[in-house]
Write a structure and sequence with these properties.
The protein is α/β, with parallel strands linked by helices. Helices cover 29% and strands 24% of the residues. It is globular, with a radius of gyration of 18 Å.
Amino acid sequence: MTSGLAEQRDSDLIERINQYFWWHSIELRDGIVTPGKKKLGLMDYEKRTIFNPIDLIGKSVLDIGAWNGGFTIEACRRGASSVLAVDHYTWNSKKFRGMETFDLAVRESGVTGVKKLDQDMDVPQLSLAHLGRFDVVLFLGVFYHLKDPLAALRELAAITSEVLVLETHVVHTEDPRPLMVYYPGRELANDGSNWWGPNPQCVVDLLRTNGFKRVTHVDVEGESKKRGIFHAWK
């Protein structure tokens, strides 16, 4: 491809990217990065924190709350054999147009082995048995948005073979007991879709109760200890 054609191709891609709202900053190719609200530096930190403890070579991955596909794409780049990306809210939002951004990002990144599924995680009597089992499950930025996060965690634990990675808003309490704050309105970030604020001990104990034998936790860098990343191993 001549330099002129390559430049036009890149220019066309940037124009398409700029038509959308992006949450994830994703380096697609040739230094082209989606303008995500979550900046590339934080994305890179989270990708290292989430994925470095896991050997993804040849593994099957389930990505719950995939949105623009930043972590779906990273799992593929780290050697996952297949990734099933799942979302509902952002993929059906007229504002976010999440499925369009996901399709664009996966296509332009050139990764393979990706499938997608529109699945509401907050339906009554949730069952995920039909998805099959996965070596690695990513449950990132979703737990506290669910009215019934315990049902989702129960179902995800049942289909995790090796490790589940949970990232969520957390609160740090003086009381050492496992606790969750309930937000009935817009108390958290003026966002009515934020329902829960567990403390880290609550998340750890919930994961252990759902059959994970070893759980590790780190506070997310640069977020004033308001978010946590948990690795739960079977």
